[in-house]
Amino acid sequence: MPDLVRRVRQALAATAGLALFNLGQSLQAGPLMSELPGQTGYWTSPQGKLFYKTVGTGEPLVLLHGFNAGASSYEMRRIVAPLAEHFQVYALDWLGFGLSDRPKLRYTADLYVSLLDGFLRDVVKTPTHVVVSSLASAYVIQHAAAQPDRYRRLVLVAPTGIETLAVELGAPAGCRCYSACRRCWRFSFNLLVTPQPGVFPARQGKLTQRRPCRTSSARTPPAAGRPLRPARSLGVAQLAHPPRLGE
Fold it and tell me: In terms of C-beta density within 10 A (0-12 exposed, 13-18 middle, 19 or more buried), how is residue 195 classed?
């Protein structure tokens, strides 16, 4: 029993020490600030305030960051200024990230689709270009399929979740197993078919456009022996008139 009490005291002391350390670090760091250029704005949703920056003139273009532990609009910092030379750029922090509010609620895909709908309706107001990263691509695709008139062009950067989110949580075990097998097969195929150096040019200050993926369950792998098509590098100025999806 004395040994248990000693361990509890040690755990409490360690927890208190970490709390004091975190408090000291937060006081030393000061308030969080966005390093992106442009004017600061807040859009008030039913769930809380969403932070965004806007800069430039022209057709609207919305930048949407991906989802990870430290995600924010800072992810788009290197392309905001070049794009602002041709567009009116909106760089948004999703709810729960960056400088946006972090309310205590259940964060679901439907919530983020609803937030996207409200932001485009109340802030952007006109059909827009969208550059979106990672898992957020699935939410944009779902909203664009329901309301295509809200969009001009979509640029998906490393999109994920487009197929997996289509499988409902309550789907039969067979459907979930089939989806998992497809993901494993695609991962293995990508490991085997590795592009040669130089096939996908990586140039500083340029964006890489890939052919849009099909979300249909009828997708098939490339035919055997068929060479992979190299991606095209687009300068920022060329993004003003990119090819339409599917071309």
Answer: exposed
The answer for 177, left when phi > 0, alpha when psi is -120 to 50, beta otherwise, is alpha
Regarding pTM above 0.85, the answer is no
User: How many structural domains is the chain composed of?
Assistant: 1
Supply the range of the domain harboring residue 102. Answer: 39-159
For residue 119 the two structure tokens come to 């932001």
Residue type at 107? Y
- Spatial neighbors of 14 by CB under 8 A, at least 6 apart, are none
Per residue in 59-101, pLDDT tens? 999 999 999 988 999 999 999 999 999 999 999 999 999 999 9
The answer to whether residue 100 sits within a structural domain is yes
Query: Does any domain span residue 171?
Result: no
* Single-letter amino acid code for the residue at 8: V
Strand order in the sheet with 151-157: 39-45, 48-55, 87-92, 59-64, 128-133, 151-157
d(Cα 19, Cα 84) in Å, to the nearest integer? 42
